[in-house]
Amino acid sequence: MLCPQLYRQRLIVEFISLVDLLSEQLYIDFLTELTSMLGMTIFFGPVVGNCKLGPSGWVAWMESGCQIHSFIDYNFIAVDIFSCKPYSAIDVVNLIKKWFKAEEIEIHE
Question: May I ask the CATH class of domain 9-108?
């Protein structure tokens, strides 16, 4: 591992959502609660834009950040977190289930 003295944690969660994915506010609220739950510090965002395939959002943390991308034609979402501060992947997945009624979840750490 390159630079083993530097702590870093990555998590990608991909899933099928059972909620309406068109609301940009959904992504802002999710990223805000995720930030609070993980005890991260926002230095920019959250920012959400309605891209061609569906809304995408991003929040920059002092500890790194999180991106979320949706593909509304497939009800598919990918959440990508990178952090220099430890966090619970289980807590992230549970929050995703709460906000997006996620099923068919795949987790990559």
Answer: alpha beta
